[in-house]
Amino acid sequence: MPKRVHDENMADNAADEEAPPAKAPAATVACEFCGQTFTTRGMTRHQNKCVKKQAHDIAAAKKPRCYRFSILNEGVFENILKFLGNQTLTKLQMVTGDRYAQCEPELAKFCCKCENDNPVILHGL
């Protein structure tokens, strides 16, 4: 029986092949509110409890919404003030850009995108 020859290079290669592959490091993300870093999995849990995020959400909820109208003259401004009495309709029209039956035709010429969409209502027929 031949004698085994020990080669140092073979021993090192064999040890490398038997070792389990190294795990890739988990991706980390910084919280945009407090700056702490978390894994992507832990970020959702953190943002549910983050004090600075909760303070930001409360401040955003209290911020008043403003709507901008281009005012041509005082008569139009007066019509806009009358029209703004129904805020729900105003918000709905600004978001959707549609025209509704309760929309005043005089004001629609200046603030609604749909002034020509419905000529029957526009001319009061």
Automatic annotation (TrEMBL):
What residue spans carry the region label Disordered?
1-23
Source domain of life: Eukaryota
Query: What name appears for this protein in its UniProt entry?
Result: C2H2-type domain-containing protein
What species does this protein belong to?
Answer: Phytophthora fragariae
